[in-house]
Amino acid sequence: xxxxxxxxxxxxxxxxxxxxxxxxxxxxxxxxxxxxxxxxxxxxxxxxxxxxxxxxxxxxxxxxxxxxxxxxxxxxxxxxxxxxxxxxxxxxxxxxxxxxxxxxxxxxxxxxxxxxxxxxxxxxxxxxxxxxxxxxxxxxxxxxxxxxxxxxxxxxxxxxxxxxxxxxxxxxxxxxxxxxxxxxxxxxxxxxxxxxxxxxxxxxxxxxxxxxxxxxxxxxxxxxxxxxxxxxxxxxxxxxxxxxxxxxxxxxxxxxxxxxxxxxxxxxxxxxxxxxxxxxxxxxxxxxxxxxxxxxxxxxxxxxxxxxxxxxxxxxxxxxxxxxxxxxxxxxxxxxxxxxxxxxxxxxxxxxxxxxxxxxx
Length: 361
Ligand SMILES: Nc1nc2c(ncn2[C@@H]2O[C@H](COP(=O)(O)OP(=O)(O)OP(=O)(O)O)[C@@H](O)[C@H]2O)c(=O)[nH]1
Ligand SMILES: [Mg+2]
Fold this sequence. Notes:
Order of helices and strands: EHEEHHHHEHEHEHEHEHEHEEH
Oligomer: single chain
Low-confidence stretches: none
Helix content: 40-55%
CATH topology of the largest domain: Rossmann fold
Strand content: 15-25%
Largest sheet: 8 strands, mixed
Distance between the termini: 67 Å
Radius of gyration: 40 Å
CATH architecture of the largest domain: 3-Layer(aba) Sandwich
Structural class: alpha/beta
Bound molecules: guanosine-5'-triphosphate, magnesium ion
């Protein structure tokens, strides 16, 4: 600390000198009026004595010394070594996805748990977690909102949907009671009422009591023509008959997933038809293991799109991802209620991802 006394006329001059000579950090410790010593003191007015002090004082010629060059060098070397460690770690993570360990990052653990609750199959959960593990680790902490973008991105990459453009002939196949006829009625109304298309309906369901009445009721309400066919030949003829329609919707009888002969018999109807969109209709309430069986056993129907019904009856949505994974096919429609024609929407990747991530209200 440096302490100095200043003799000045008044406080204003004193302050200026203190700041000027000791710098802006100086503080005034004491100020008082004093007379000059000797006989002159009687003839001139008393002056002001100011005592001021400052810490870390350097005179103008005495600037603080820069740290020695070796010290700067050491600092840079330490920072470089730290950077090298981070780069090496990132490269390792990139090359080899880490195995699941007991010390899995807490954020990854939460996502794993969430995906399990959504009944995503274990192999897909592992793929997703391994993929995002590169970005989420103990060294690099990201805010939850940013980190979850990586999971969303990985999820989106695995989801497939398709725009509603639609072929002229659309066929609905799938297990019993999943909502094939109801979905057909919803789409028939949508095409005819909202898009102003000419629509013809054909059914080859003459097995179940009441099936025909159900479809006839929809046909009467909407005024759309209905054809009932008994043989594969009849079906081709009916399609021919509706050739003036922009849309021909074909309902089929629900078949038990385990009854392969029945499924194959139905597949026989679908040979030699004009190019068609064939929808595999499945309920969101289907057990995970059964879903795989359905996708396999109905393969002989050559379905090329997926429709999921009864989303209003579940709160787990992993099946959407699982079904796309099992089949490699896109989901086109989702239905979420019994109301015709309202309870249906075109599936889109963001919506499906939001459902699986639990972000959809
Ligand atoms: N909650 C709910 N129920 C639905 C949905 N879609 C259809 N249903 C109901 O599911 C039941 C069966 O529907 P259908 O359309 O007859 O099913 P299907 O697949 O044609 O049945 P089969 O022809 O016997 O194989 C009916 O009670 C429908 O109202 C949906 O999205 N949500
Ligand atoms: Mg039906």
